[in-house]
Queue: 3 jobs
Job 1
Amino acid sequence: MSAPAGKIEHSQSRELVLWSCGMGRLRVLESSGAFRFIDLFSGLGGFHVALQELGGQGVFAVEWEPTLNALYRHNFGVEVWSDINRLKTDEDIDQKVPEHHVLTAGFPCQPFSKAGDQLGFQDTVQGNLFFKVHQILKVKRPPRFILENVPNILRHDGGRTKDTMFNMLQDLGYAVKVAHFSPHEFGIPQVRDRAYFVGSLDGLDGFEWPEKHKDPTSISKVLHTSIMSSRPIPDLTLRAIDMWGDFLKRSPSSLKMPSFPIWAMEFGATYPFEFETPSAVWERRRKYGLSGMHVRGSFGFELDGLPIPEQRARIPSHSRRQGDVEFPRWKRTFIRQNREFYRDNAGWINPWMNQWQPWDFPSSFQKMEWNAQGEERDIDNFVLQVRASGVRIKRPTTAPSLIAFTQSQVPILGANLAGGRRYMTPRECANLQSLGDISLPESDLDAYKALGNAVNAKVVKAIAKPLLFAIPGATNTRTTRTVGAAS
């Protein structure tokens, strides 16, 4: 009598018996009673932390970055394969990849992210690595998998990328579901939406996604008040924070702060944007450009009488890209909103501009995103982040979404949160990813980058638990377990 496809059972001899579609019976020696998992594109090991806490045993990992490769071995005692593309053939995979019950993979997200070129599967460096995951699933046939990526992968290429993934996985015999979750929905003070795909060879009828919570969160849960950042905040960044702090203080208490990004370079500007762009004018009037049209550039700077190269320097960077003959609707809307906001508030904005001269700051410091509607306007009460889109000001309920940081994008804690303005430390960011006390890269920059690419272990654990232990027919014990029907 055969067991259901995909089911994992313990025999009396403490050997793990794996049943898998099309493979018959596999005997997997296993002394600890743990289910076995592999961790592809493992990074810092968020999947490993989660599944190990559920009683799993990591038996294989892949990570191409040498520092993280060595660190994974140090943290988890698992030898790490360096380049997944060296597993070229089915025979390579069959020989090199151990038998396992759960495959996990946070395959590269850049080709599917809205922040990238969105080449998807056409990205021959990273976008096609899903196909390598598919090949391993085809050869090794683990009963379960969990995949993670950016939520935009569900919409990428009009939904065709998601459909391709579903079709390929279902053709292997897997039932597949996908949903997206953020750490803040599990009590962790970080908003970081990610898509999670789960698959099972014996169906997902009994599987339920974990419940999302709406309990309040606070960044204080992850802070170490006795630890100070080893890297000082640059003087220019501190001055920009002071500038926007003064902007908030000058704003009338009766004024509702805008929910749209504030683009200070549009204060006083009158160059065309609704039906024509500066680039279109420069193409149409190749000798004079905007000169003689009696319009003004950034911060109301004069353009008349200037040659085109000097005109270009006085137009905001978001409006002077060559070839932009028409702005997208969202950009026209932001420009219009900022000009109207300035028109209605010039009485207190002009003295602010005269004092701080924001045109002397880099473009990213000339913009501000206020994400704390209704709060007291003291900038040191908040979590700050310098991004290309501006100085983002967030409530201390959550940290900004961890990304593969440049040094300038590490979250900054306001003085009232941390006893003085400082960057969040790598250890605090590791807490945001629920990674416990694992060792991190020695370089802060390397640590921040790795943490920005990491998967949140608590979110994975919440998804994996019902996948592994909640499908009907499974037992809910640590010593006798039917993994495959997920309880």
Job 2
Amino acid sequence: MSEKKIIEERSLILNRRSFLGKTALGVGGVALASLLGANLFRKDENGLLTKDDSLEGVKGILNSLHHPAKVKRVIYLFQSGGPSQLELFDYKPLLNKRRGEDLPESIRNGQRLTGMTAGQDKFPLVGSLHNFSQHGKNGTYISDILPYTAKMVDELCIIKSMYTEAINHDPAVTFFQTGSQQPGRPSIGSWLSYGLGSENENLPAFTVLLSRGTGRPNGQPLYTRLWGNGFLHSLHQGVQFRAAKDPVLYLNDPKGITKEVKREMLDNLAALNDKHYQDSGDPEIKSRIAQYEMAYRMQTSVPNVMDTANEPDYIYEMYGPEAKIPGTYAANCLLARRLAEQDVRFIQLYHMGWDQHDNLPGAIAKQAKDVDQASAALVADLKQRGLLEDTLVIWGGEFGRTNYSQGLLTDTNYGRDHHPRSFTIWMAGGGIKPGIVYGETDDFGYNIVKDPVHVHDFQATMLHLLGIDHEKLTYKYQGRRFRLTDVEGHIVKDILT
């Protein structure tokens, strides 16, 4: 089915006047449409998620899934700035034993460095000043600055062998989010909106929440293109929810505009746009009509989902005291659970502040405290509500940090530069083996020695869990068929149930 046809079908569903006029079902038709748009997945006899083709709703380009899915939504807790794996997950006692010694050339092997350390005469090895302890059934080492994460380690698949080609923040974040280091490609959430559509006709398929950490509060910025639709239709772009009186910009009506007036205005605007579409045939016009209609419905749905006042006290206690402060990581994790309950397809959290080139021991402890309790609470909360079994939760940044000190090394202080060659993320939820550690780095924590996982492998695996063959979800643009994983990517089968 062509993209043009898909946009036409969406506008038929989302445009009230068109729907009523062409179906002649009246109010009963509106109620039926609301129900039919609510769920595009069902479970087969084996408990696997499959596309339910008997339902009509806000569909994506895929008429059916490529294979049964394990999950139907993703919550991506992106830790922007590059968390140091050596302070959090990748325990390397050798670095403390050989503290201050120069990194052997046989280990570095001529690897590219950033401009921040390329001029150093020496690269003194430095281990973490924070202690590690073993946790869970398998005795997994977790830093003591992540006590809540340590308690839930049996729910996690910790991947210690991630790697990327990007060595600077912007291309590295862009690579994870879009599959390319160059800006302009669609983000993950946009690909999922394009392929799978929405499970909730009153909320976007792709939502974004931002928070700023205490580890480096004025660190690397993020750009809206990271959740942009690229060359896909604008219907698929991410919608940012803000910690403000108006969570979504330009959503509320000016004073004096009633619902009746707004409805009439949208109907008239849709008629004008439809006439323009008949003349030009531009499918982006239909996307714009659909966006107007979505915004109209979001005027009610967004305040409801953003209002956490009715959450019980024990929930706030789970997520931590900052869960009551809008815009914090804890508050956003709680909102992520609420959005998951509403079947939002892709929920993207960005937490900034992990870029610790200096003062790392103290700064990373603050940053870890920002996210530790809330991340663990999110997983536990999803599990107690029966949502974890069909939700994929991801935690990680764009690259890791070096095993040597950037700048002056003292007894109490040091920094670390960017390190794309090996770093750690974790995943939890449906289809992921819990309580395992996958991949391994050398004793210096510098090179991967077992089971490397490339960024495109990670993306391919995520799509696989959603029932998508990463090689088949494509979009033709400027004479080439593009996909999230570009021309690479292998499914990491050993971490799947």
Job 3
Amino acid sequence: MTEPARILVVGGGYVGMYTALRLQRQLRAELRSGAAEIVVVTPEPYMTYQPFLPEAAAGSISPRHVVVPLRRVLDRCRILIGEVLSVDHAERTATLSTLATDEEGTAPVELTYTELVIAPGSVSRTLPVPGLAEHGIGFKTVEEAIGLRNHVIEQMDIASSTRDPAVRDAALTFVFVGGGYAGVEALAELEDMARYTARYYHNIKPGDLRWVLVEASDRILPEVGGKMGRYAVRELRGRNVDVRLETRLDSCEDRVAVLSDGTRLPTRTVVWTAGVRPAPLLAATDLPLNERGRIRCTARLSVEGVDHAWAAGDAAAVPDVTSGAPGGECAPNAQHAVRQARVLAGNITASLRGQPLKEYAHAYAGSVASLGLHKGVAHVYGRRLKGYPAWFMHRAYHLSRVPTFNRKARVLAEWTLSGLFKREIVSLGSLEHPRAEFELAASPPPGDDDKPSS
């Protein structure tokens, strides 16, 4: 009896989920007969739709509607919650640790495969800034988004109750580093939310909050073009956001953000969104990498010079056949990742069936970005939009792209309800430490240790 063709998908993000989803549809007969098997290895049992993280942080969308449960969507795939530690493609073997191996204290397990789809995505790119590891807050996961929302409201609570002006000023100063999508949208949405929340504090006015955006280059949101980027700067500055271009964060030790222009900002909030880098796993494979640490790929999304290995998304350097410029590569963004996954799944199916492969070709359509409720910028198919039309296009586009009809309906319902009722301004910081209350109740009262036993 021949072994089934095992397709190993590393990663459960855009590329991993969409590739596995299309494969389970295209290989329905093979999966039913046992001739093929799809295994997805991912650290989390869900896919995060990252464009909705800023709205989740602002409370416009429930956190559970920003994620897509993989077991429900990929019902014909085998889902392993764990982490691939290394890949030896020459031996068609991946070494991984799972929740079970961690719990049992056993060695990592080896999994053999026939076809490899490597799509672990990216991680935050950090720099050796003093104090960043201790005080910085990321914005790449739904946990970080909700944690940041709780943190911002908690700082307002601290500022409202303290008698120390220095503590109050530091609590109401919020520093965001990075002028790309993540940084600008997160700051804009949270500033909008915090300005609304301030009306419920008797001693905090919107003008008391200080928001600072630090960007090392000379513009923000480069994807929407220079004109729209300059409009975004004017829009943010019009809302009293201190936008610092051509400026870097030199230190954030002792809760003081020191900028390269000499400014010192006492703050309890430093949000780091200064770019991403390929997942560290890529360095633990025998696959060819380019100078930026991404996997070298062909236009057919196969790994360059390697058989039975495929890659796409943030981890892959995919030639842009539509650019017309030699050596051009597709940008590592969601727009390309979702479309690459479709071609990738089709090419794997074609490869298994001995059919010709297709090249990935997609001209960049443009970009949209939210600047808070009813505000945005867009540069789509050569047309520039700003304000409400851009914000509406941002919502419409991402509603059309979020996976599953279930999620689309829930997100649309939440947007409708949020337009009819007031914002939720509750901080649920205790969610980050759910056992704290019980541990306190279970611990002996103070002084019990000193009492003599009966």
